[in-house]
Design goal:
Belongs to the TVP38/TMEM64 family. The chain starts with a helix and ends with a helix. It contains 12 helices and no strands. Helix content is 86%, strand content 0%. The chain is flat.
Length: 246
């Protein structure tokens, strides 16, 4: 009886390891394989998104479907982290205007964040346990599930130039709830989105001075955020407590 139980336990362990390896392989395909495939075999796709002018020309070829292509590009940019998102938003600013561009950008960011969050949650846990061991993962989760983690997530999405989209995968590995993560990340993304959309709109209408002013204001706000980071942290801690009740 004990031998049979022992065999079953060994079999379960092997199945668990095999499942973890398979999930890890799928995660690596999404995170590394797809970007490498696009870079080496479809580099023209990256070129199409390398400037606002190229994006506008590409979207003009598919005017009827351009909104869906834009939102799909926004999703793809978040999921595989290879398409430059800044140019997308510049182009959206002068193609759709500020408010419609912001709406389409938010929808794309929302869907992309949900996809990456669940991809990591479904495929990531077993794979991470296999690589680092359950004890280390538990320690990591303590940090990721703390108030500071939410503040960190907000700042990552808020500060321009910081790689943001891998953060979606990290959040999926943690026990952070989806709703608070989406609220914090989308609010954090919004100033950068709005700035890019406004600059794109102003450049399209010839308002280069206005575009420069918007960029300068964004830099000043970023500096103020660093200077008053302690007060911002206190505010975010209170917001975190409310969000976790959602």
């Amino acid at each position: 009886m004990s031998i049979s139980t022992d065999k079953k336990n060994r079999l379960r362990k092997r199945v668990k390891i095999f499942s973890a390896i398979l999930k890890l392989a799928l995660l690596l395909v999404i995170l590394i394989g797809l970007p490498l495939y696009i870079y080496f075999f479809h580099h023209d796709l990256i070129q199409r998104f390398s400037s606002a002018e190229n994006i506008e020309a590409f979207f003009n070829d598919y005017k009827a479907q351009s909104v869906f292509i834009y939102m799909g590009s926004q999703i793809l940019q978040i999921v595989i982290c290879i398409i430059p998102g800044q140019w997308l938003q510049f182009a959206a600013g002068y193609m759709y205007g500020f408010w419609l561009g912001y709406l389409y950008s938010l929808i794309g960011a929302f869907l992309g964040s949900v996809i990456t969050y669940y991809v990591a949650k479904i495929l990531g846990h077993d794979a991470m346990h296999l690589i680092f061991g359950e004890e280390k993962i538990k320690k990591m989760l303590v940090t990721l599930n703390s108030k500071k983690a939410v503040v960190l997530v907000f700042l990552i999405f808020l500060i321009p130039g910081v790689p943001k989209d891998l953060c979606n995968y990290v959040a999926g590995l943690s026990e952070m709830k989806l709703k608070p993560f989406l609220i914090v990340s989308l609010i954090g993304r919004s100033p950068g989105m709005m700035g890019s959309l406004l600059i794109g709109r102003q450049i399209h209408t010839g308002g280069y001075i206005s575009a420069a002013i918007i960029a300068a204001v964004a830099v000043v706000l970023c500096i103020l955020g660093v200077v008053f980071r302690k007060k911002l942290t206190v505010f975010l801690d209170k917001a975190y407590e409310k969000l976790m009740r959602i």
